[in-house]
Amino acid sequence: MTDKQWNNLIKIIDGEVFKPLPMGFIIDSPWLPNWFGINILDYFTNDDLWFESNRKAVETYPDIMFFPGFWSELGMCSEPSAFGAISSFPVNQFPHAHKCILSVDDIKRIKKPDPKKDGLNAFLLNRLKLNEQRINDNGHKIRFSVSRGHLNIASYLMGMTELMTGMLMNPEQIHSLLRIITDYLKEWHDLQKEKFPSIDGIMILDDIIGFIGEEEFKQFGLPYMKELFDKNVKVKLFHNDADCRVSVKYLSEIGINVFNMAFNTSLNELKSITENKVVMFGNIPPRDVLAQGSQADIEKSVNDLINGLDDPSRVIVSCGGGMPPGVSSDNISCFIQSVMNVAVK
Q1: Residue 167 CB partners (closer than 8 Å, separation 6+)
Q2: pLDDT of 17-43, one tens digit each?
Q3: Considering Cα of 38, then 202, then 278, then 262, what sign does the dihedral take?
Q4: Chain centroid, CA 314 distance in Å
Q5: Reported pTM
Q6: Which domains are seen in the chain, by residue range?
């Protein structure tokens, strides 16, 4: 993200209205490698291909803010690998972390990893360090520390069904696991900021809070999220493109000031619930419109979203969730032009 984009992002958080409305996307391995013309495994294992694909994206679409920008990641395998999860990397499919906690009794053997050396994150951090100068030379900076959330990681370590069942049947053991994961994540974010002083934002992605009820969220989600976002940074971005109705009213309390949500929730409703204290980052349908829709579909979806806003402040126009696989350059260009053509109230 360039200095201008970062400064504009801060202004958006402060409530300044831009005309046309600002645009942004979360981009990573589900979309970027194939758009660039390479397979996912090459993207993960070749520094030059990783850098050039990110560089092409930011240079092709300078009007779009890409989050977090030059993201060094290995899909869902990054953090779980530090806890012992075996990771599978098909050549051109999404990687997968296999569960390593086979019963709640296994939780007692889990130790907090060292983010400096345990698991795959050490390689990801080193990739950023090796490419930091090239990123800076292209007018961008590393702005965010990034991780999956504590519940997301727990779901990979022990399985989704097992995690949900454990919350009801074995809450003490689940809290023990979440405590270890959260402490690790706090150190992991601190390490990223230590290595890259340009970081002034935190980005956490966790869809699992969309699959639990409010009482479970208040017990297993809210207190740990408040710890994770308790950082002295200007931008606190949270991604949850599952159901957000349980958690959205707590975003401001947690400290989150930018929220990327699922497409099937009205921005007006979300802005009302959060008292317009949180930037809403979305939310046209990602797959059916942005990836698979016609350009007429994209134009209509963008027009309906912007024209339907009761208040255009604290909005970044995007899709509901990260950039999905298969979005073409033509559809991105149509999205940009559609946003620019709509007169903001």
Answers
A1: 174, 212, 216, 219, 220
A2: 999 999 999 999 999 999 999 999 999
A3: positive
A4: 18
A5: 0.97
A6: 3-76+112-148+197-341 (3.20.20.210)
